Amino acid sequence: MNCNARSYYQVRLRAEQIEAARQQVRAAAEAVPLNFEAIVGGELRAIEGLQAVQGLAAARAQYLSAVLDCNRAPLQLVRARTAAGVARGGGSRRRQRAEAGTVARC
Asked: What is the pTM assigned to this prediction?
């Protein structure tokens, strides 16, 4: 599979991960006030409210991680393409010209 296809599928996968994490955050955020109402009403123990808050924090952390991974994907693609260009002897035109002696090397 070439870099473009791999990148496309990684972006799609990460977009799905973001949506799943977003739904988890939404569900956890809805659960917290319900748990606190149940605690006040004597239906739940305080530890269960704490667990709901911890679940919300974990869901938010997972969402943030998914967004960061999605933002890293284009950078990883550029890095892979650059490494592949260097390995093939390609690279930037400036570097090629420098190696040919048409541009002064720094």
From this structure: 0.68
